[in-house]
Amino acid sequence: DVKVTQSSRYLVKRTGEKVFLECVQDMDHENMFWYRQDPGLGLRLIYFSYDVKMKEKGDIPEGYSVSREKKERFSLILESASTNQTSMYLCASSASLAGELFFGEGSRLTVL
Amino acid sequence: GEDVEQSLFLSVREGDSSVINCTYTDSSSTYLYWYKQEPGAGLQLLTYIFSNMDMKQDQRLTVLLNKKDKHLSLRIADTQTGDSAIYFCAERRIDTGGFKTIFGAGTRLFVKA
Fold this sequence. Notes:
The complex is a heterodimer of chains A (about 110) and B (about 110). With about 110 residues, chain A is mainly beta.
């Protein structure tokens, strides 16, 4: 089975702090994605990566950056967390850009 | 999400059929998906349909696609309490640079025992 693991299930941070959300997949997938999930808005794509060291902006990249130094790991970085970034963050991977998405369990971030 | 719309809540009695509806706007959609999210978990692909099909059945699940009206539905027969979850409709469309998956806001299905 494909496993997508998000290292932190729950985080509480203060405004202005730097936040790292880590995601690891074990199926050698080329593509990895970061979404945020908010009630009534569904999932919105923040960034995705189709290869090591490659990244593309999604629909809402402002306030976020990403890092993909190794194929299995895709990190989401909030340089200076703000309260409007309080959300559930979901990582996903897929074998191809058109393929099925496999999701991690999510990281719930609260910014105070 | 971008023009993938679904109602936010549905309540049914155990044993009844559930029908979750979704509308989308992009005619270039290639695949349409239903994902299920159980409490405290990530999303899992439940089923999908290719845009040139109009129906797909998989055990208790039936997906109907009306491409003319851009309407997708998911029917769950003999709904059980374990089916309580959020169901996301998603479309895969061609975009600059490749494919893009657009999700609806999710329909929370509540099954009453």
